[in-house]
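Intended use. Records like the one below are meant for learning the mapping from a protein sequence to its folded structure. Do not use them to infer anything beyond what is encoded.
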Amino acid sequence: MKVVELILKSAFFDDLNKKQCSTIPVFIDDRFRIIDAPTNYVIHQIMEIGRWKSMHTIRSNVESIKSLLMFLDGIGVSLSTINMRHWIHWRNNMYEDGIRHPNSSRSVNVRLRNASTFIVWCINNGYIEDPFIGLTEVVEVNYHGVNFNQKKFKVKKYKINSLLRVRNLKDRLPTIDELMKFVNQLNSEIKLIAWVMLESGMRISEVLSMPTNVLPSFQDVIEQSRIRYAIHLKNNEMYIKNRKSRIVFFSHSLCYALWIYIQQVRQERLSSKDNIPTSLFLSNRGKPWHPSSVQKHFKKACQSALLSISMTPHTMRHIFATQTLANWNFYFSSETTCLLWLKERLGHSHVSTTSDVYIGMVSELQQMDHEILNKYENDLLNMMKY
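Structure written out for the chain above:
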């Protein structure tokens, strides 16, 4: 793919108020055929609405679009079939190039912003189907000076912040063998806390403040085996980030293990207590666990397992989300549907947060260890053996 420039006539040059642009870029493929979408987009921005009025702006946008199209061509994907995973892959690829070469994160972010504007234009003009279907958000906008009462109008706007910034690369996720080595170094109580996070995606602060009354009754657990229970996390009963109540799901095995803990461990720690705390997990002193204490146990287990990566309580949440997203085709009609479901389970305010964090992680995970994607639940039960 190449970009050639056509010289503009003086009449058009005058229409632009004699700005610096005197040529118009045209995108052509290897057979010297004009590529319609990017070429028409450039013409629209320069000639029809006059938004790009300097050669610097034109050059910056053209280079951004060219970078995206060449990347898609390199991985054998057409513009009409682009999706979120391709976006994340392109973003990460540019960031890695920025590490090897003197390209700043700002330059990468400029390319992402320019290319995302191009994609939105292509969607609105029918060149491609919406790769962000289900991810559009309704936002309130003030049209100051336009409306007399300055009312707020709700408009649909593409929420693609995940494409407009570069994050620092984090530690990779553990393989199933590394996770098993780590779990084996935890004591039974911390292992149970990790199990809750691995199976529900709850934050450590939420797990440690979770009350006992969220669990199904012990009688129900005994009588109804092999069933998943809906656990209602309510903001007025426990700490929840952003005060966003939600529902998570526990397996029968996890609920049974939690009730055994309540009857054999928690009850003993409450024997000398006047004011009974509501938290499910209690320390040896009969008080709720503090997240930093659990973090210390995780750090010690990592060292004992001789792992080359760090394992934190939040890693458990990442593992839950990546496993669900990686296996979306077994449970959901589309990856977007899975993202929307994950958003609710994880308690994210915006689905763009879910896609930003976890689509890249799933791609990385598939490259590292494909087996973990297929046997996660069975391995989780085996490694816990509470």
